[in-house]
Amino acid sequence: MSLPGVINQESGYIEGISAVPYFHNLPIRDELQRRLQLPVTIENDANCSAIAELSVGAAKNLQNVLFIVIGTWHWGNGSR
């Protein structure tokens, strides 16, 4: 599962700052595993994009790749 934010692989929680703060500190991985009765892995959305390009996309079979993600940054009350 691809989600924004810093993913703690051990706990399965989303930590840090992201564009979707209501996902933070929820046991989303464990809850999905329980409901689906399947193993669930979560990873940062930018990392998932890079992994997809390397495995089946434009970067497949390339030795050197630069992957740049441009996203949004929210600070405090939205002021910059």
TrEMBL record:
Similarity comment: Belongs to the ROK (NagC/XylR) family.
Name this protein carries in UniProt: ROK family protein
Pfam families, alphabetized: ROK (PF00480)
InterPro entries referenced in this protein's UniProt entry, alphabetically: ATPase_NBD (IPR043129), ROK (IPR000600)
Species assigned in the record: Xylocopilactobacillus apicola
Top-rank taxon, per record: Bacteria
